[in-house]
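Lab notebook page, bench 4
Experiment: in silico fold of construct C2
Operator: M.H.
Input chain length: 231 residues
Purpose: comparison with the prior construct
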Amino acid sequence: MASVYKIRRTVIAVIALIIIVVTLLTHPDLQQPITQTPPPNVVASGSAADSLAQLPVKGRAPKTGYERAQFGDGWTEVNGCDTRNRILNRDLVDAVVNEKCQVVSGILHDPYTAKDITFSRGETSSQSVQIDHVVALSNAWQTGAQVLSKDQRIQLANDPLELLAVDGPANQEKSDGDAATWLPSNKAFRCQYVARQIAVKAKYQLWVTAAEKDAMTRVLSICPGQKLPES
């Protein structure tokens, strides 16, 4: 008989525990929606150093789930012009554009190497000038972009603030490095480079790692008045 009472008490305790758990999981006042406030529509302004000081510092999140498609399937088009050609037209000198809104030639004063590169559109020659995501997309994914909506990630990947036409080999060398692991060989451009990274991270509410922040701080120590770019 005692064992029967013991079993009943156990069953009652389990039922009570289930009721408590269900209440905690379903009570509206106790639920925390997993959402992210959309990035502001205005670009951060002021000094890069001040904006860097305001960025959250966290460890790098796992790369789990990252793929390029998380930021859209290639470049978006606006009025028949894709992002790559719009950035080439912005960054190249004497750019020649055909009727398909494709940049067919021009001169790039490469910010990463300080070299002048003659660009000519072609199956292989086009790769001499590439469009760099200043904040590498995998870095963005691991520093907050994975909680942005798909539309916000596509916006980030096609935002002129995030893009630069640069020397192809230098872009390949950079790969998905952050400021702690890669900086342009052109030292005169480093202040502008990290300022652009900071502007992107501020706009899209991304964070920096401790090593990344330290590297950015060292660069900005020689140009404390460096402003953030607007586009």
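Observations: The chain has eight helices and seven strands. The chain has a mean pLDDT of 87.
Next step: discuss at group meeting.
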